[in-house]
Amino acid sequence: VQLVESGGGLVQPGGSLRLSCVASGFAFSSSDMSWYRQAPGKVRERVAAISSVGRSTNYADSVKGRFTISRDNAKNTVYLRMNSLKPEDTAVYYCYAAMRGSWGQGTQVTVSS
User: Fold this and answer.
1) What is the pLDDT at residue 92?
2) Is beta strand 2-6 parallel, antiparallel or unpaired with respect to 33-38?
3) Neighbours of 18 (CB within 10 A)
4) Per-residue confidence at 26, pLDDT binned at 50, 70, 90?
5) What 3-state DSSP class applies to 106?
6) Average of pLDDT values for 106-113?
7) 20 to 30 Å CA-CA from 40: which of 32, 93, 94, 109?
8) CA distance 79 to 112
9) Side-chain-side CA neighbours of residue 48 (13 Å)
10) Using one digit for the tens of pLDDT, what is the confidence trace for 38-67?
11) What is the C-alpha to C-alpha distance for residues 20 and 69, in angstroms, rounded to an integer?
């Protein structure tokens, strides 16, 4: 099982980023997928989740209306579109595959002027 995140970086407050997570080694289209984040000194928290075929999504209250999770099962990829970014969104963002209980290596997102 391999999950490879990309798309993180440094962005100014109010800016946008799109994270990608490419999966391999398991039946991606059968697995619910999630994005988590962990800021320094804080517990890892789930920010968004999507069902296996993409019909159902849910979000943490802190990101509702700003973040959008989506997936392309033909490409074995799950995305997290992040708009109106705030300094408190700064964290390492991780992709998680529910079927296998597997994590990616994470991608750093820093929101700062």
Assistant:
1) 98
2) unpaired
3) 13
4) very high
5) coil
6) 97
7) 32
8) 22
9) 23
10) 999 999 999 999 999 999 999 999 999 999
11) 10
* CA gap 113, 107 in Å, rounded: 19
Q: Output the six-digit token pair for 32.
A: 């619910």
Taken in order 63, 65, 67, 71, is the CA torsion positive or negative? positive
Q: Could you report how far apart the first and last alpha carbons of the chain are, in Å?
A: 37
DSSP 44-98: -EEEEEE-TTSS-EEE-TTTTTTEEEEEETTTTEEEEEE-S--GGG-EEEEEEET
Block residue for tokens 């490419």: 22
φ and ψ at 68, to 5 degrees?
-135, 125
**Size of the chain, expressed as the number of residues it contains:** 113
Tokens 């984040």 map to which residue? 37
CA gap 65, 59 in Å, rounded: 9
